[in-house]
Structure prediction request, 414 residues.
Amino acid sequence: MPPPEPEPSPDEILEEKEFYLDEFDARTICFAISLADFDRSSGAFGGLGSVVRDLLANDTRVILLLGLPEQRRRKRAGVWLKTVRGRLRPHLLSKQTARLFPKIDGRRRIAESFVDVTDAEAAEVENGPYLADMWQVLRTRPLFVGLLRGSEMLGFAGRVAVRLRVHKLVIAESAGGICTTDGNHFSFMDRAVLEAVLHDGEAEWTGVSRRRRTLKVIKDTLDGGVPSVNLCTLDDLPSELFTYEGKGTLFTEEDYCRVERLGIDDFEEVERLIRRGQREGYLKGRAPGEITSLLLQGYGAHIGDGRLAGICALETAPYRRDRAGEVVGLYTITRFKGEGVGARLVDRVMADARELGLRYVFACTTEERAAAFFERQGFARVAAKDVPKSKWKDYDRKRLKRLKVLKREIRGAE
Prediction:
């Protein structure tokens, strides 16, 4: 059994969170959440409030749509609204967010952000007064909390997201992300995969038929121009939005994965990934100059809306005499492990190796799982003497004893 993934450090989590908050800066995110899930999670109001507070402090506009539990519709919406406001308010307000709400009679007023829209029909979003009412709230404050009937909440949220062209729709459901009957978890789905799953009979075959309504709303939302949709549990919201772990499913319109040269706007994030890989032991320690070389030579795998999912580079300069290249800095973000990202990165550097007329490409790792991955890509385990001698100049002898060396010949190379 492989060892468990190392727990990220507090500094690492903070770096990840800042990265994602940068993406959400000055954007609008719409949330669709059923209040029925709050009964099963004692810390739900605090967790949701903390997520929203972080976004508000980040100058992100938030539309939070909450669906009433169907079995409790007899309870007056006004009572529910007061309850929700009372539970969320302490978690929403901080020194950073209080200033975002106007003062009325000398007090910060957040109550005006909470609105009863239980008479709303999803089909009437375009022609109803709801969007105008929503903007009347959002024009003076960055938060709108709408209370809806549970049966209308999801469809309403999707139509609002499309009509207002928000940056992202986030759906929280107790079932979380998409899993098939055999336990296969989809951390990512592009529109083509989503369409395939929704095809007649396919949803039943894969075991996601009970999620068909949710998937249909997600597809309509992507078709309507919203760049991405996240689907997760209520408790997993912080992980899904602010970390590389991402326990739910991310849906995007764009192709599954694009491997491109790293650009300068990627460099800071790539350096964070390299440091993470070094802490986990997947990547060896590198001097600043070596990291710069990796950045300038490297490729990034970008998922869907441009999110960086993995990195890799082909180093050739030290091995010109041997007409060889080394795969260096290969690292895949946790949530995308097993999604084929690493294989696409290797395919790209192998294509470069052929164009350069190399005889072979090799890779070195101390991790058994990484070695097994390279074997699946057509590499074979070899001895250290089977790759260029220049590789071992001034190499750490302790690391060398634990090292696994893999090599892939290039067919047709003279």
About this structure: The radius of gyration is 25 Å. DSSP finds 15 helices and 17 strands in the chain. Residues 77-92 form the longest helix (16 residues).
